[in-house]
Design a protein that fits this description.
Elements lengths: L1 H8 L2 H6 L2 H6 L4 H136 L5 H15 L2 H4 L1
């Protein structure tokens, strides 16, 4: 809008008489070309200087950062692969642990059964020895009791015979008579 209002105030015939609007807009004289060339050269030098001072270090920084990120990603990939390997090992060990636990339990049961059998056999052997010893002791006690009863019977029989006969008999004859009497009665009478 401002441009239109400013064009409205412009004296058109005066501009056209001096060479027109086109001459003023595109009027390239030597000074303008020189200024444009100097400006372009200054911009080129400035661009090269800034490129050298700013862009190259920035590019180096970006390059280093890119390499750092690539290295990190490579390490992360390797770590991920290593973690996958560890996971597989862990899973296989878990499976093996169950089978190892079953084997250990099985061998422990076998050992316990073997020990149980050994203990039972030892107890049976010990019980057999105790029974044999008790039978021997009972037999010895039985024989001892038999001998004591024989001696008692002999004493009683001697007293009775001495009172009945009133005759004195020597001890050897007395023992002979008792043994003969006992044989006639039999050993079975004394075993009961």
């Amino acid at each position: 809008m401002i441009l239109i209002s400013s064009l409205a105030n412009v004296n058109v015939p005066a501009i056209l008489s001096e060479g027109g609007i086109w001459k003023r807009i595109f009027g390239l004289d030597a000074q303008t070309l020189f200024d444009t060339a100097v400006t372009l050269i200054a911009m080129l030098v400035l661009f090269m200087l800034l490129s050298y001072l700013l862009f190259n270090p920035a590019r180096e920084l970006i390059k280093k950062r890119r390499e750092f990120i690539e290295n990190d990603m490579e390490e992360a990939r390797k770590d991920k692969e290593q973690a996958a390997i560890y996971k597989e090992e862990y899973d296989s060990r878990l499976k093996n642990i169950q089978s190892e636990a079953d084997e250990i339990m099985s061998s422990t049961r076998k050992k316990a059964q073997k020990q149980e059998t050994e203990i039972v056999n030892e107890a049976k052997e010990e019980a057999g020895r105790i029974i044999k010893r008790a039978e021997k002791e009972a037999e010895l006690e039985k024989n001892k009791a038999r001998d004591e009863i024989k001696q008692e019977i002999i004493s009683v029989a001697t007293l009775m015979a001495g009172k009945m006969i009133n005759v004195s008999i020597d001890e050897a004859t007395q023992n002979e008579l008792i043994d003969t009497t006992l044989k006639e009665m039999g050993d079975k009478t004394w075993q009961n």
